[in-house]
Design brief:
This protein is mainly alpha-helical and 134 residues long. The chain has one domain. It has a three-stranded antiparallel β-sheet. A hairpin with a 3-residue loop joins strand 2 and strand 3. Helix 3 packs across helix 5 and helix 4 packs antiparallel against helix 5.
């Protein structure tokens, strides 16, 4: 799991909660969310592959479950999880819209993973199985 958040330090309890609560569901959901959001890339004949959409879904789930937890970027710069997720999502959206040549990253697939993660957490919250972290 640590590889998924390379450069970001999370506590073992937080990682365990994310893994137990829905990593498999998020991983499965990317099979639907990534292609849906990566449709633009497919239209311009750019193939996409990987599990990064699931990583972004987990990142968003973490931000919703532990909104006030600090994430240390490269162990030096603290930022609350909720702001980090918003900032990272905005960067992905901007990067996807700007579509610079030579950028081989499926930014919209990342956003698709985040959207799937959001709806999954909202479903769990409605169902009453949502973990309210600190």
């Amino acid at each position: 799991i640590r590889i998924l958040f390379s450069g970001y330090e999370l506590t073992p309890d937080q990682l365990e909660m994310i893994y137990n609560e829905g990593y498999q569901v998020l991983q499965s959901g990317r099979n639907y969310a990534n292609p849906a959001m990566g449709f633009y890339n497919m239209m311009i004949n750019v193939p996409t592959v990987g599990a990064s959409g699931a990583v972004f879904g987990i990142l968003l789930a973490f931000g919703m479950m532990f909104p006030n937890s600090l994430i240390y970027i490269y162990f030096a710069f603290p930022i609350k999880a909720k702001y980090f997720v918003i900032l990272y999502g905005a960067i992905e959206l901007f990067s996807g819209i700007s579509n610079k040549s030579g950028d081989n990253v499926a930014h919209f697939a990342h956003l698709g993973g985040m959207i799937f993660g959001f709806f999954l957490i909202m479903y769990w919250k409605k169902k009453g199985t949502f973990y309210h972290g600190g």
